[in-house]
Amino acid sequence: MNGIPQANGNRQVRGKRWKTAGLVAGGFVAGALLSLNLSALADKSGKEGLPVEELRTFAEVYSAIKQGYVEPVEDKKLITNAISGMLSNLDPHSTYLDTEAFKELQVGTQGEFGGLGIEVGMEDGFVKVVSPIEDTPAARAGLRAGDLIVKLDDTPVKGLTLNEAVKRMRGKPKTPITLTVVRKGEQKPIVVTLTREVIKVQSVKAKALDNGYGYIRVTQFQENTTQSVAKQLAELNKSGDLKGLVLDLRNDPGGLLNSAVGVSAAFLPPKALVVSTDGRVEDAKHKYYAASEDYNRGTKDDALKGLPAAAKTVPMVVLVNSGSASASEIVAGALQDHKRAVVMGTQTFGKGSVQTVLPLPQGAAIKLTTARYYTPSGRSIQAKGIVPDIIVEETPNGESHDRIREADLERHLINDKEKEAPKEAAKAKDSKDAAKEKDAPSLAPSEFGGKNDWQLTQAVNLLKGLAIMQPKAATTVTATQ
């Protein structure tokens, strides 16, 4: 498996080779992206023939705009907008990347980029927050998943494309921007001023808990995430074999496929199936295993070199929530299917599709959905997500943040294993959540890994064989696996 384009942004893919990378641009992550080689589709589309009548209509519209629009329009702008429209109307994750966005995409997978630190999408013409990234201006200001950004400084968001809105949120470090936010349950818009900064995402954090238990949090799957997880496991194991480990994937929007395979491989037996992908062309059909050739990228050194043997056997709990997407869901699904860990928390985001980035001339690119991925048992995550083995809400009162999911996005791909059933289930849950939260006070921003982290406390209780406290009942589950 070849690497993503390098950070200098000069590397091009020619002929029939496609390369991918995680989209991280201007303080936002527009969907977690997986890495995949794919043959070009030109030959296949050519055999099907060109839609002559539709192309004639396109040419007529183009000519009408050039001749009669109230103001002159450059050819480049018209063509770019046409390309952008074609892609954005396919599904929520296919998009056009201009030169600047493509360069920042490549830099973003290195874990550093400029902006506010929010993962966003588009809904009803407004920017919708999918998740704030930890330790960024957006997170510190209290922005939450589900917030709608309706104004950027004095500019209404309505009428802007997602790329245009993101460009306005980008800017030089230490410069301010004022966001007007509409939040469910709040009577008035919230106005908050953030200061842009260079976002440096530390993808792996770890700490020792009491009495031989460990905690590792993966915030995003970047190039060095597998190595970082191996290093942290070695550090946690220095004082003796771990009694139990919590792997925290909450609010992790995903990232690179090889990193997801590598993190899974750290805990699974060698050669165990981690994930499979399936699309229309042959190169989109692939199986990835817990093997160095499937998680190492452009290096002869094994990213899991020095991994303690205890990593393969330590009792584990994986924490997830509706902000856990794509690569996070791959890891959770693999460990769940192989019965290597107990998955705890709330249902995940449900992004089970693969995006491929095709560089274009003059430095632009398109990001195109090319495949679905499946867990080792053949489950599709698309528009459904991973259902935890044990449901634990974010607070002792049984409350969780109201977050957007894949099934909520317009034009999302259906789950080819369950068709529209997950969508109906999601609607039912949304109605239930709306009724529950109608008069509920706003939740404070989550502090993952802190002393008041309710889900983490329950995960440790499970590992210790203690009672897991639920809002209406208590359940005791032992850590025997």
UniProtKB/TrEMBL annotation:
Domain PDZ: 102-170
Annotated GO MF terms: endopeptidase activity; serine-type peptidase activity
Keyword Hydrolase: yes
Composition skew (Basic and acidic residues), residue ranges: 413-440
Any GO BP: proteolysis
Record's GO cellular component terms: outer membrane-bounded periplasmic space
Keyword Transferase attached: no
Region (Disordered): 413-451
Family: Belongs to the peptidase S41A family.
Name of the protein this chain belongs to: Carboxyl-terminal processing protease
Encoding gene (name): ctpA
